[in-house]
What does this fold into?
Amino acid sequence: MLQKTMIKALCLVTAVGALGTTGCMSLNIPLGPNLGIFSYPIPVSPYYQKRLEDKFWDHERYDRVPVLGPLTAGGPAVALDAPSDDEVIRALERARPLEGGLPFLYEKNRNNIRIVKEKIADYVDPPRFVPLIGPAQLHHAHYKCTIYFSETTNVGWPIPHRLEDEDAREVIYIDHNHFHMVGNMDAG
It folds into this structure.
């Protein structure tokens, strides 16, 4: 009987010692500020982190309007670049997000994506004063982006089946606007 009690006591001391050295529980006197219950990590869904990263990506890449140098006299006033494939797919996801997303119950996929970009307008507004920039001209470039893809829908309940649309297409209109400075930029 004494031996069983000694074994239980030794196991208890070992467990308390191991728990005190993990870093999650502190049996010692805290040496710094203690946040109490808030000092333990709380799990957060990766969905929220991805949503914030996507929001920052869009802000950094596509939501800002660049300010370029003045247009040269007699030179062509041509827009910078056509929208990238990434920008077109992100605009498609905002306009028509994929529904569902429950594995083995309801899934929708876009495959074999082909993007055709057409410039439909490219013009420059007359000079005007823009706050925080000064005298500038707004350069407009409008693009029509047609996205061809095959859309597969997998339904798993109540009757499992697959729907395939081989000739799906969506049209997205993207505006690329940027400013051109007017006048002598070195004079301040």
Remarks:
- The first strand starts at residue 67 and ends at 68.
- DSSP finds three helices and five strands in the chain.
- The two ends are 93 Å apart (CA to CA).
